[in-house]
Design a protein that fits this description.
With 799 residues, the protein is α+β, with helices and mostly antiparallel strands. It has 16 helices and 51 strands. The N and C termini lie far apart (66 Å).
């Protein structure tokens, strides 16, 4: 790390820390390539991690020669349970000391914070292969971190629980997550909130955005985005959602997390069950483990995970509670397992002897540090042994619940409670994308409750009642909604909550004036190519790239021919040609040679613009690009941008004159904006006679955009991006005619794709999701752009 020394004056200031990305020790590979780690070759590689010093270190730690026991790592022979336990414990310790501990201590000495994330933390199998065990590494990070990939949430809940548990136990104030990778170009603000809320409510409080590209040129535009780039139509509005994240993150650093239950992490059982030849037992162990955790969340029993290596160093029993570092627990749950370490058994024995509640879920461990052991029988006699979720729920009735949630939320509502000297912070999240829940929430004690709105920064008193020693509040959680409450010692507010009953609805189903704010787009992603005399058939650009750059190779001279049609009699504005790496080509438009890139750029400095307004004619238009394949050659789609509409006719696209008005706002793709990725103003007016002051809302049934910004009579009323897609416009309404203007903010999805993925928007959007033959369809899979059923609703307030 000596090269970093020249920046030492900026350590802890301009350079707050060091980020590590996916360190691992993986050696074994699955039978065939996989999208997510651990990836593998065509044929399996049956191996385990190894290094030259491992045999010596193994003998030092375990007292015998691993070389004599190697077959036991693969086959269930001899003392394989003991051998595997010792081997993977040794491997985990060596990786920990050689990498994480060493870097942590170096950063500590130099005033830097060590953070980042390890490879494939998401299951027992993947972390065993890649790290031995993941949780012990978090002890040696100042800001322990993970990553979240894809447009889904529950696949990562083990990962979040692992890192949040260590942070709670070892007093790490911040927990980092690299988030939004592999989500593509679409994610709306609501999508981003849905992903982030799942992380925040489970313990993350520092979002590390993935990714900020230097350029969108070539394959970079497909590099595991979401892309945080100035070309994003929502870029100027990004502060809105970032302030929400910042406020919630700050609130979730206050005080100490309140968790009463510890679940023993079964990674040592996975060590014993794992063979590179057969991992099915580890997969089953992982499934059983996650089922127990999900059931606890359904019961609203918050919990931490206890890693046995960390517990050996930081675990003890005090006052009938088990302590791990600075966290203490009233109850311990052992999920279905085969093994516990010797130190864990001793700790649990002391815990139950002191009166602590130990719950063991069948099948019970039979091994201690890899050895069969009869001493476990005494432990099970003092534990509550269960073999069903109903029995688990019954056993947990003895455990004090700091938060009670009444109402059938189907396990989709999660909470996070933090406590300081005289106050508490309660964050509640609806993880469902479809269901609204009306719930009653109780917190032990008497509290004055304030509701804080992290979107606006405003706060207000929340009515509550005290019953049976608990403060109760009622909440309504729409899909992807959350609530943040701050509780202070004292009596709750008793004011009655007002209800709003709709009295009158004005449907805005007439014509809307349309004003496009950026150039419209026609994507040309099919072309013909010619190397000698004849033209190829019409092909997708990625296939042309493969045939020219991979099959034929460097030095191949070629011509590409793109085609589009125009019905424009005259052009009211401009028509521009956008081509990446414009200096790479000689170009002709309808046979006329043009200089590419001479008229500016679009989206990115590498997307050169050429004004072709005067060259575009009615009927068929052709664009020919000539070049020669080089070592770093990338063939990409080209774009026609400008002042026109785009219509699809059978299997071809035609540029036509734009409409001034639309009768439907549900999907502007069908109104001439198929590939558009900017913002559009939609304006209409309505008549409203107001005999008295009313609560008036602008409402939508559905929103397909990053967000919508609403103006009433020329004044900004606010933004809509979150269900129930409802905005209070009472202060901006007047008697008579009123104008509403909706600024619909798009994404780059329908411009940069994926445009031909059979799934439309896959949960995992990597480079293959754009161009792979396995997912390709010639059909254009576009996202709707618009809003459904706009209306103005007058409400009557009642108690």
């Amino acid at each position: 790390y000596r090269p970093y020394a020249k920046y030492r004056e900026e350590f802890g200031k301009t350079i707050p820390g060091v980020f590590t990305d996916e360190p691992n020790i993986s050696a074994s590979r699955p039978r065939k390539p996989a999208r997510i780690p651990p990836r593998g070759p065509r044929f399996p590689v049956y191996s385990v991690p190894w290094t030259d010093t491992l045999p010596e270190k193994f003998r030092e730690l375990n007292g015998y020669d691993i070389l004599e026991k190697l077959p036991e790592l693969f086959l269930n022979i001899g003392d394989y349970t003991k051998t595997r336990y010792d081997f993977w414990r040794t491997v985990t310790t060596m990786f920990l000391e050689a990498f994480s501990k060493q870097i942590y201590e170096w950063c500590d000495r130099h005033g830097l914070k060590f953070t980042g994330h390890y490879l494939a933390e998401d299951s027992l199998l993947s972390q065993l292969i890649c790290s031995g065990a993941t949780m012990p590494h978090y002890e040696y990070q100042h800001v322990p971190g993970i990553d979240h990939l894809g447009m889904e949430i529950w696949h990562i809940f083990l990962t979040v629980r692992q890192v949040a548990s260590v942070a709670n136990q070892l007093n790490r104030k911040r927990v980092l997550c690299e988030v939004y990778g592999c989500t593509g170009y679409y994610p709306s603000f609501e999508d981003r909130k849905w992903l982030a809320d799942f992380l925040l409510v489970q313990g993350v409080n520092l979002l590390n955005h993935h990714l900020v590209p230097y350029s969108l040129r070539g394959r970079r535009k497909r590099d595991y985005g979401l892309m945080f780039h100035w070309s994003q139509p929502w870029w100027k509005y990004n502060t809105l959602i970032e302030l929400y994240f910042a406020r919630v993150s700050y609130a979730l650093t206050q005080g100490k997390r309140v968790v009463n239950v510890l679940v023993i992490h079964p990674i040592t059982s996975a060590w014993i069950e794992y063979s590179p030849l057969n991992s099915t037992k580890v997969v089953k162990l992982d499934e059983d483990f996650k089922r127990v955790m999900k059931y606890l969340l359904r019961l609203h029993v918050d919990f931490d995970l206890g890693d046995e290596l960390i517990m050996e160093k930081h675990g003890k029993v005090e006052n009938a509670k088990i302590k791990v570092g600075e966290a203490e627990y009233h109850a311990v749950i052992i999920p279905p397992s085969v093994n516990l370490s010797q130190k864990t058994v001793e700790l649990l024995r002391d815990f139950v002897d002191a009166g602590g509640l130990l719950i063991a879920f069948k099948p019970l461990p039979t091994l201690v540090s890899g050895n069969p052991s009869e001493e476990l029988a005494d432990l099970w006699n003092k534990a509550v042994v269960v073999e069903s979720f109903e029995e688990l729920a019954s056993a947990l009735e003895k455990v004090d619940k700091p938060v009670v949630i009444e109402g059938d939320d189907k396990g989709e509502v999660l909470y996070h409670l933090r406590s300081s000297e005289n106050s508490m912070v309660l964050f509640i999240v609806n993880t469902s994308r479809e269901t609204t829940f009306e719930l009653k929430v109780g917190v032990k004690g008497s509290w004055k409750v304030e509701e804080w709105d992290p979107i606006t920064g405003e706060n207000s008193l929340k009515p509550a009642i005290v019953e049976n020693g608990q403060t109760w509040i009622r909440i309504k959680l729409y899909p992807v909604n959350s609530k943040l409450f701050v509780l202070e010692k004292g009596s709750p507010a008793t004011l009655a909550e007002k209800a709003e009953i709709p009295e009158k609805t004005i449907y805005l189903n007439g014509k809307w004036k349309v004003t496009r704010k950026e150039p419209n787009v026609l994507v040309l992603d099919y072309c013909r190519y010619r190397v000698e005399k004849s033209w190829s058939p019409l092909m997708p650009v990625p296939r042309v790239h493969d045939e020219l750059c991979l099959s034929r190779g460097v030095g191949t001279k070629y011509t590409l021919r793109f085609e589009f049609e125009s019905e424009l009699e005259t052009v009211n504005g401009k028509i521009m040609l956008a081509v990446e790496n414009p200096k790479m080509f000689k170009a002709r438009v309808n046979g006329v040679e043009v200089e590419l890139g001479k008229d500016g750029h679009w989206l990115d400095w590498n997307f050169g613009l050429t004004d072709i307004t005067k060259l575009v004619g009615k009927g068929l238009n052709t664009i020919e690009l000539e070049s020669e394949v080089t070592l770093e050659h990338e063939l990409e789609n080209i774009y026609i941008i400008g002042d026109f509409a785009v219509e699809k006719r059978d299997n071809r696209f035609v540029i036509t004159a734009e409409k001034n008005n639309v009768s439907s706002t549900e999907n502007l793709c069908t109104e001439g904006y198929l590939f558009y990725s900017g913002t559009i103003d939609l304006e209409t007016e309505f008549l409203l006679e107001l005999p008295e002051k009313k609560k008036i809302y602008f409402e939508l049934d559905e929103l397909n955009a990053a967000l919508a910004v609403v103006y009433v009579n020329g004044t900004k009323a606010g933004e809509i991006f979150l269900r129930p897609y409802k905005l209070d416009i009472s202060d901006y309404i007047k008697n008579g005619y009123n104008k509403i203007r909706v600024v619909l903010v798009g994404t780059l999805r329908n411009t940069l794709g994926p445009l031909h993925n059979k799934e439309g928007d896959p949960k995992w959007t990597d480079a293959d999701a754009f161009i792979s033959k396995n997912i390709w369809t010639d059909k254009y899979m576009l996202r709707p752009f618009g809003f459904k059923n706009p209306k103005v609703v007058l409400y009557k307030e009642t108690l």
